[in-house]
Amino acid sequence: MTRFTLADLEAIVAERATASPETSWTAKLVSKGQPRAAKKLGEEAVETVIAAVSGTREELVGESADLLYHLIVVLKIAGISLHDVMAELEGRTRRSGIEEKASRQP
After folding, report:
1. What is the CATH number of domain 6-103?
2. What would the pLDDT profile of 13-27 be if each residue is shown by its tens digit?
């Protein structure tokens, strides 16, 4: 099992976001702004779904890695930390998913 965490990825994204867009894909995405980064996240989400439905295990692993990376970039641009997302997830564990979803319905 790897010791690499999403927190590690978040730190790498933060560091690379300050690099030159000519030398870093992360910096290039950040420099193009949230609309472009969010579009790329959406593309990766679709590719992940396709891999989950009809791809190989390796394809799903690769697309999932792309999806998580692009999510971290979108969060970085928005000024949202992984800690914020994890706190939200932690709060949701206090009740069932069915109860949580029902509470959001008008």
Report:
1. 1.10.287.1080
2. 999 999 999 999 999
